[in-house]
Amino acid sequence: MVTIKQATEADIPALLEIYNHVIVNTTAVYDYEPHTLAMRQQWFATKQQQGFPVFVAEENGEVLGFSSIGPFRAWAAYKHTVENSIYVAAAARGRGIAKLLMPPLIEAARQLKLHTMVAGIDASNEASIALHKKFGFTEVAHFKEVGYKFNRWLDLKFLQLIL
Ligand SMILES: CC(C)(COP(=O)(O)OP(=O)(O)OC[C@H]1O[C@@H](n2cnc3c(N)ncnc32)[C@H](O)[C@@H]1OP(=O)(O)O)[C@@H](O)C(=O)NCCC(=O)NCCS
Predict the structure, then answer these.
(1) Residue 58's domain is classified under what CATH number?
(2) Mean of the per-residue pLDDT values for the chain?
(3) Which atom of ligand 1 lies nearest, measured to the CA of 89?
(4) In which domain, by residue range, is 12 found?
(5) What is the distance between the alpha carbons of residues 21 and 19, in angstroms, rounded to a whole number?
(6) Pocket residues for ligand 1 (CB within 6 Å)?
(7) Stated pTM of the model
(8) Could you identify which of 78, 86, 106, 109 might form a hypothetical disulfide with 67, taking C-beta atoms 3.0 to 4.6 angstroms apart as the criterion?
């Protein structure tokens, strides 16, 4: 059975592996090189300092996915807005794991009295767009050719949920 829990430091290597697989194989993350363990540890420490949750989906002790929120943009007046991230291990996709990871994230954002959640999604990422729409996100922006990866230009969509 897949269960959702708050991530701990012990989960970081598994989160790193899931994230790096996405970087190397997809346009879901606009980065070229795999991240190091130190980078993911710093990322996790920053989440804790900022008071933002990180959830993991686990089955038989194995981490199959994670979700989190973080600042949307650095300026003060954006403080009631967050951007989300959600990743599921390639071998575990299509089993409803993202559908389990999303509700606690939205609930945590509401508990933190945040006002809106933004998702920046590569325009070709139909699974993520469908997932977010399922949870009430609506498309609010479509940026043309703002990314470049795998020798092609990438369009980025912003979807938004008012909390
Ligand atoms: C996007 C992602 C998180 C979805 O995770 P998942 O656990 O496979 O998704 P689920 O099985 O919970 O499916 C949730 C919904 O997403 C949509 N979806 C999932 N896979 C899909 C696919 N291959 N094509 C179209 N829609 C899909 C469906 O609406 C689905 O709901 P339904 O099964 O009731 O129809 C996963 O594919 C992933 O990690 N991809 C790589 C990283 C990524 O793109 N992250 C998001 C960055 S914005």
Answers:
(1) 3.40.630.30
(2) 98
(3) 39
(4) 3-162
(5) 5
(6) 22, 26, 28, 86-88, 93-99, 119, 121, 125-128, 130-131, 134
(7) 0.97
(8) 86
